[in-house]
Amino acid sequence: MTATMDDQKESFYREASVAHAMAGAPALLKLLDGFIISSPENPDLLIRAAELNCGFAMLLIEQEDPEWASALYKRGFDYVDKVLKARLPGYKDAVTIDDFVAALAKAKKKDIDAVFWAGDCLGSYLNLNLSDPEVMGDLPKVAAFAQRALELDETYFFGGPHLFLGFLYGAVGESVGGNPEASRMHFERAFEITEGKFLLSKVFFAKSYCVQTQNRELFEEVLEGVIDYPDYPDSEFLLVNVASKKQAEALLDRADDLFLD
Asked: Are the CB atoms for 44 and 2 separated by under 8 Å?
């Protein structure tokens, strides 16, 4: 069953058509839901479901339907949260952020997928619900997930931990914990890991660091580079890049709203 899910995941990421991915992904997610009903404690299924709910929402849904994307992020987190509760002593009962960090410290390299997707799902959910004070209380947990994922494997999911931390540090002002220098450092390492081929990192760099530092020239240069990047049909993340190009176009269209001058 897991091998089948891995094949389905690979097929999803290699899809060249956003329209086809949009049409097919809901059926794939429902198939996963059905498998989980039959095997509710299976960690491989739960992690796959978290990843695909998060990926579907981030690549294809968030810009058009934030409410639906928010629900997908929440579902993805709930799935992978079950895995971490079962694997990490102290995680389930952590009360303070120190307790939570101590529990995450028990994660091993084999747990990188669960740690990373838990943080990505929760962080993406937070990003769409910033007006909810209760949700904002989970921000330290998101940072803890990101930091632990980085410690376990900085190269996981095409440099994902660096993308994650780059966005966290770059999306908010310094008065509320942002750090433009750290943001750029993490993004540049993400670019290095994938030799600049994973375009989503560049889109996130533009919409966080470039906007927060009000560097419109760099914003436009990066996004125009994303749009002009060739589509390699054998790319293992072709759908990510095709969707990233659409996001880059949408961001460029909004540039006058994002920059003060």
From this structure: yes
Average pLDDT, the chain: 93
CB atoms within 10 A of CB 93: 9
What is the rounded (10 degree) CA torsion for 107, 55, 93, 100? 60
- Domain-by-domain residue ranges, the chain? 179-260
The proportion of the chain whose per-residue pLDDT surpasses 90, expressed as a percent, equals 78
The answer to whether 63 touches 250, Cβ cutoff 8 Å, is: yes
Residue 174, amino acid? E
Number of CB atoms found within 10 A of residue 5's CB: 21
pLDDT at 110: 97
pLDDT value at residue 2: 52
